[in-house]
Amino acid sequence: MLAAAAVSLSACMGAPTYGTDKPADQQLLEDLTGVLSLGPKDKKTIQYKPRPELVKPASTASLPAPQDDVVTASNPAWPESPEQRRERIRAEASIGSEAYNFEPEVVDGAATRRQRMPLRHTKGDPVDINGNSILENTGSGRKEFNRRLAENNQGSPTNRKYLSEPPLDYRAPAASAPAGDVGEDEWRKKKRREQGSTKGSWSLRDLVPW
């Protein structure tokens, strides 16, 4: 047993070094431990220097005034929180409860008539809550429809519903862009084309007096 250990020890001592001045088994062990090490061996020393002090003005009496366009809760374009909306509805209800024609914004948690969608006739175009058509090509009906369309697309200039809504200046189209008017109704265009195509020709329907 002792002879075998001596032979093994002599074999290890006599192992080739391959020009590294170290036996192969020792070099392998050092390579493995070097790979498993967490950091480099040569660590650079960092020279930490204290930060300089803050530069303070010589006099605080002549400081510039804060900006007025900073987004704050006092900005009228700031979104209305649920608590603020609840307080506003309560204040309107307490102030206008004495009027005979007062119509609250919310009744038992449901929206009232002024918050509902525009009503529709059984025949014809959609109308507003007063029964006036909002799809006329000319007059106040078309302007009202365009106003509502712009409000739905752009939002209110004084009240933002969601924080994700971008500022109105970013969503406004260019002055040369054909925006703001929905144009003529398709059924009117179709009717005009049909009248133009049948002009100069006749059919059996023309013989009917009604």
Notes on the protein architecture:
With 210 residues, this protein is mainly α. The chain has six helices and two strands, in the order αααββααα. It has helices at 2-13, 24-35, 82-96, 140-154, 168-171, 186-198; strands at 106-107, 110-111. It has a two-stranded antiparallel ribbon. The relative contact order is 0.05. Mean pLDDT is 68; it is low at 118-123.
Mean pLDDT: 68
Q: How many strands appear in the DSSP assignment?
A: 2
Side-by-side strand order of the widest sheet: 1-2
Helix content: 25-40%
Proportion of residues in β-strands:
under 5%
In short:
The chain is mostly helical. Helices cover 34% and strands 2% of the residues. The protein contains six helices and two strands.
Compile the SSE list and pairings.
Layout: H1 2-13, H2 24-35, H3 82-96, E1 106-107, E2 110-111, H4 140-154, H5 168-171, H6 186-198
Antiparallel strand pairs: 1-2
Give short descriptive properties of this protein.
single chain; 210 residues; mainly alpha; two-stranded antiparallel sheet; 2 strands
